[in-house]
Task: inverse folding
């Protein structure tokens, strides 16, 4: 099972006065769904880009199963905010794309892609064109594409941010189902507090300038959903509301102290 | 702040554009057809009433009759098909050469800083020069044979394709590039699977523009130094005041340009159906 570790990571854009991220240490292991939550400017996208290997840290170490991360790679699957699918391929082609790049024969990769499409409830959409899909369907294709390459860890960049509330809730439960079944550690960033509290096994709260971790919470609402409790019952549970309000208060108190300073 | 979001605009609508524009396309076509028909009618009226000398403007009937003569007997030792073939052969050769060189160079310009530094000034330097201005130099270097004509057209087609390809490569969606990289794509795979297809709409537009420029350059080149081709046919007919052949030649030149444009548009619709779709 995969273990992703970040050790004292700092990042700074060339020419920028203050670092985007300062001294971030965290780890995501088997059966974990780590959510990084923060307002815009807290460096959560930069954090994901660092782990994905799109940018390099100015200090610190990122390792996956002990192997240092150097540049992007198929062992870290990414689901993007705006699907980033290839419109010149149909749905099946998009899901099989990573395997095609790896040189997997057509029959084998298409079989695997169909399996992944079934996992995200899109089995009958295999031959569709990308522009014929809704926003939620595109995100599911993006998820299936990332899973098809069988990565060690799944990185999700505000995957449900552009979706409407109904679709978002459905996607959250779908993600929890897949996280249970595929048994992969997930690192997800979001600015939606309810989403973060619902999904996370560990919630990391980021504050801006410079981006840093101000609180870590261990939560079990996602696990409760996976154990069979309905999503609505969990989200209206007083303990859930309490956790949500606590996170909200932390964010506001940080913002106020920053504005006073 | 928390998820008390009001449901935003619901699911993006499933593509409905073709149906909507199809309903509106028909009247536009009818208007165009009507314009053409009235133009031909005016032409016929003016010539039938004898207001214009046939030397200046032959009647539509005369032109049609002449077209038959040209098709069956030819003009200036060559049949109409040979003139047509000569012109199309030249532009075809030049286009093929341009496609096979301009697309790789365009990709290099768009992808690599060094290649951009090398090719950008060269292309931007010669591109604004009217091809007929450097035709004399090409004739001095390469003679008046086929080579100089094909070379002239090639140069005219090359620049638009190379520039359009470079633009297409540069405007590749960075999210798609990152997605492919995170799936393990190598540099070559990025170019083959992401950059090239995403630049394809621009490349095809470049070819369309290039063919337009190339065709006008070809006809102009044939007016100056040639013994066959549509441009030559028009030019030599003009010297003998054979006005019907001149008019016929011009109509043919226009018709072919139109056909080229239309077939490229059809090709574009077929090859890049995602172009113009929100995705």
Result:
């Amino acid at each position: 099972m995969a273990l992703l570790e970040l050790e004292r990571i700092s990042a700074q854009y060339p020419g920028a006065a203050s670092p985007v991220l300062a001294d971030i240490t965290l780890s995501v292991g088997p059966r974990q769904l780590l959510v990084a939550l923060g307002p815009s400017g807290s460096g959560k996208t930069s954090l994901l880009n660092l782990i994905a290997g799109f940018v390099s840290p100015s200090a610190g170490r990122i390792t996956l199963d002990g192997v240092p991360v150097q540049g992007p790679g198929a062992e870290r699957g990414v689901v993007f905010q705006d699907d980033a699918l290839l419109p010149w391929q149909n749905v099946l082609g998009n899901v099989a794309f990573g395997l095609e790049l790896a040189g997997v024969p057509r029959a084998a990769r298409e079989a695997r892609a169909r399996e992944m499409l079934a996992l995200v409830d899109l089995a009958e959409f295999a031959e569709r064109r990308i522009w014929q899909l809704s926003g939620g369907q595109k995100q599911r294709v993006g998820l299936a594409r990332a899973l098809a390459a069988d990565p060690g860890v799944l990185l999700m960049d505000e995957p449900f941010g552009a979706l409407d509330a109904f679709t978002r809730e459905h996607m959250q439960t779908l993600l929890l189902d897949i996280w249970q079944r595929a048994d992969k550690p997930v690192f997800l960033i979001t600015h939606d507090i309810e989403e973060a509290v619902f999904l996370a096994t560990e919630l990391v709260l980021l504050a801006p300038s410079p981006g840093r971790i101000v609180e870590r919470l261990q939560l079990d609402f996602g696990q409760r959903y996976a154990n069979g409790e309905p999503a609505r019952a969990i989200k209206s549970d007083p303990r859930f509301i309490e956790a949500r309000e606590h996170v909200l208060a932390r964010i506001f108190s940080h913002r106020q102290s920053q504005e006073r300073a | 702040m928390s998820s008390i979001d009001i449901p935003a605009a619901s699911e993006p609508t499933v593509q409905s554009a073709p149906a909507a524009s199809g309903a509106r396309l028909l009247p536009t076509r009818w208007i165009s057809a009507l314009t053409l028909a009235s133009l031909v009618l005016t032409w016929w009226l003016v010539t039938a009433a004898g207001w214009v000398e046939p030397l200046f403007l032959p009647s539509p009937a005369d032109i049609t009759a002449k077209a038959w003569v040209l098709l069956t007997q030819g003009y200036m030792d060559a049949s109409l098909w040979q003139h047509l073939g000569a012109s199309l052969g030249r532009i075809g050769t030049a286009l093929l050469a341009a496609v096979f060189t301009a697309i790789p160079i365009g990709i290099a310009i768009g992808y690599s800083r060094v290649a951009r530094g090398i090719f950008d000034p060269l292309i931007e330097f010669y591109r604004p020069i009217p091809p007929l201005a450097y035709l004399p130099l090409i004739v001095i270097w390469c003679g008046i044979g086929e080579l100089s004509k094909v070379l002239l057209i090639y140069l005219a087609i090359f620049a638009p394709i190379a520039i359009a390809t470079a633009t297409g490569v540069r405007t590749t969606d960075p999210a798609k590039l990152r997605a492919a990289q995170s799936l393990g794509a190598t540099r070559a795979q990025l170019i083959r699977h992401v950059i090239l297809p995403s630049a394809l709409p621009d490349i095809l537009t470049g070819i369309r523009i290039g063919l337009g420029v190339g065709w006008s350059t070809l006809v102009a080149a044939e007016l100056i130094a040639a013994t066959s081709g549509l441009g030559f046919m028009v030019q030599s007919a003009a010297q003998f005041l054979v006005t019907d052949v001149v008019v016929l030649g011009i109509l043919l030149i226009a018709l072919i340009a139109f056909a080229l444009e239309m077939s490229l548009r059809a090709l574009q619709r077929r090859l890049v159906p995602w172009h113009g779709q929100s995705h």
